[in-house]
Amino acid sequence: MTRIIAGAAGGRTLATPPGLGTRPTSDRVREALFSRLEHLEVVHDAVVLDLYAGSGALGLEAASRGAARVTLVESDRKAAGLIRRNIADLGLRQCQVRAEPVERALAAPPAEPSVELLMADPPYDVGEDALAGVLALAVPWLVDDALIVVERSSRSPEPTWPGDVELIGPRRYGETVMWFAEYAPEGEIA
Q: Which first-to-last residue range defines the signal peptide (predicted)?
């Protein structure tokens, strides 16, 4: 059972049907991730982009913890429908779902960058080159000093970061690694 850890919807469960190919981030890993994000003060009032949203657990957790706006991108239409149902059930009106491949969702960047927190939890079968391409497509969406978090298997290498993205460091949680980086177009990490 997957649940929201804290915030306005804390303790509420998320519908996550089997067979959609999603593997929701475990409650333990999400709790550790969001403890770090809150320590860095990047969740409250943030504009969040959740790529490869799957069950929506990461983006919905951010919304529950006070993110101003959360966009969840998921290509599987059934999973996207389930995320929409979870949003309605939890009353998280600041969330929207885009049911399309992440590459298509990122292809037309906004007139002004607004994303302060980018989270990406690609399926394990998304190769490193494809992930690098997605991260490069995401750059025009990011404000200066935006935080990027990429969840991967501990057997996967460090993501290939686009120019102006600086690695902060990984955090390991069993078989999961969270890679933290910052978009620093001036070349300096805040």
A: none
**pLDDT tens-place string over residues 14-66:** 887 665 455 567 778 889 999 999 999 999 999 999 999 998 999 999 999 99
Place of tokens 């009032």: 45
Q: Which residues of 116-128 are buried (b: 16+ CB within 10 A; e: fewer)?
A: bbbbbbbeeebee
- Domain range summary for the chain, segments of one domain joined by +: 2-183
CATH of domain 2-183: 3.40.50.150
Residue 186: its pLDDT value, please?
Answer: 74
CA–CA dist 144, 9 (Å, integer): 30
Which is nearest to 108 in space by CA: 82, 78, 73?
A: 73
